[in-house]
Amino acid sequence: MTPALELQQVSKTYPPPTTVTALSDVDLVVRRGETVAITGASGAGKSTLLSILGTLERPSAGTVRIAGTDTSTMSDPQLSGVRAWHIGFVFQQFFLLDHLSVLENVATGLMYRGLPAGERRRRAAEALDRVGLADRMRHRPTQLSGGERQRVAIARAVVGRPAVLLADEPTGNLDTANGREIVRLLATLRDTDEDTTVVLITHNGAVAEAMERQIRLQDGRIVDDTGVTA
Ligand code: ADP
């Protein structure tokens, strides 16, 4: 089966004045339906790797394939299309819009799908039901707890049923109990959506262990990968 994500000899050097090499010659294949934790010290290249997997950044060298398609020759609008259709993002800071209801926030996840507003709301309601927030749809994000806000952000990320969910420290702003709840939710989504691939960055050992596969970065290179068998 075509891998969900594939990096071949990917390097990323940020342009001057910094000229930092954030990733060096990274080879990585993520199968469909895999759950992967990326760990490593601050500055190891985790966010850069996630941004490249999500086509938010282009590599300086190497090839990035999303569901088998080489992204290197794609234009920026084409990459936006890949993101809109195939990839969901979750961030530590939630990034919810406080002036919109929870339902409207989740519906923004379908903005680029060309669906009528009524259909967007119907699917948003369905996604909120899946994350256990069916009774909070009319609330504003400010009326929710941190854990609930992150569940709204996850609903927004998966409302379009993307093949890949990328999460940058999704439990970083949450206490242990809420963090555990978010990890459980990510696992459930993977199970119910069959092939959803989850890649997350975490500093939390328990969160990393909850994923099937752990990859550790150091100085822009993969130094440990439990998914690779010799
Ligand atoms: P991590 O997520 O593991 O903390 P990052 O991927 O954010 O690591 O950063 C890896 C290296 O690249 C760091 O040295 C960082 O300072 C540098 N870096 C990250 N983003 C940029 C950028 N936009 N411009 C220049 N250097 C950057």
Automatic annotation (TrEMBL):
Listed InterPro entries: AAA+_ATPase, ABC_transporter-like_ATP-bd, ABC_transporter-like_CS, ABC_transpr_LolD-like, MacB-like_ATP-bd, P-loop_NTPase
Domain ABC transporter intervals: 5-230
Domain of life of the source: Bacteria
One Pfam short name: ABC_tran
Record's keyword annotation contains DNA repair: no
CDD domains given in the database record: ABC_MJ0796_LolCDE_FtsE
SMART domains cross-referenced by the UniProt entry: AAA
PROSITE patterns for this protein: ABC_TRANSPORTER_1, ABC_TRANSPORTER_2
Keywords per UniProt: ATP-binding, Nucleotide-binding, Transport
Example of a GO MF term: ATP binding
UniProt name for this protein: ABC transporter ATP-binding protein
Source species: Dactylosporangium darangshiense
